[in-house]
Amino acid sequence: MNDMATCSTIESLPYDCVSEILSRTSPLEACRFSLVSTSLGSCADSDTVWRAFLPSDYEDIVSRAVNPFTLHFSSHKQLFHALCHPLLIDHGNKSFKLDKCWGKQCYIISARELSIARGSDPMIWSWRPNPESRFGEAAELRRVNWLEIEGKMRRRNLTRNTSYGAYLIMKVCDGAYGLDSAPSEVSISVGNKVQHRGKAYLGDRSEKKRKMETLFYGNRAEVLGNAAFQVPSKREDGWMEIEMGEFFSGEGDEEIIMSLREVGYQLKGGLILEGIQVRPKTSYSAKC
Asked: What is the pTM of this model?
């Protein structure tokens, strides 16, 4: 059956039936249907359709917004599109956003919400306002010889049955040192099971340093898998990120633990920490 025949068949169905069918598609497909004809457009814009695209706990999410008065809309479609923009929640310590194509949930957990080893010691970590931070402040590492950062969240807060990635959002300030000298271990656990374990460098290792490793270790450097080590990559929002790993959200409510731990005891400083982002592995813009 061609597209025109399909559209004619759908248009012959009752309004409520068409709305119910479209509610089982996706925001992207509903928007496409709205362009086909006036009658399909009316169905595609209905509250029945767009309520289905919102998280089941959207009312709770809205109630946790720093400024919930900005989310008073006359339709569920308008509310959906508002939630496709970053929303500060939980006293400004988290950022929430919906993926505009599929309606999947994305969170950024601020540095304040993370468990950072000796994070309250002003000689080691400096907490200061940062105009480039979505949270207004970031944590800057002064000097430490052992690093541990951990973030937690529940699976029920994410879109079910979706592949997610966790990303450490950071920057390296001028004068930073030791961040590219030794790798850190990154891991993700769901419940009591480790879903991912790998290694990452907090600094972008120079070509000179990689050549020196090859000179000293020869083929052993390849055996160690240096090519697979994560290194910071640029984001669209001006920050950098390191992928900590991925996991499947499933349908349970286990705790997700995302951690970065230093493998060695290399003295380091100059890391600026924004937080950890949890986002779907597909159809996503880093502007969240």
From this structure: 0.86
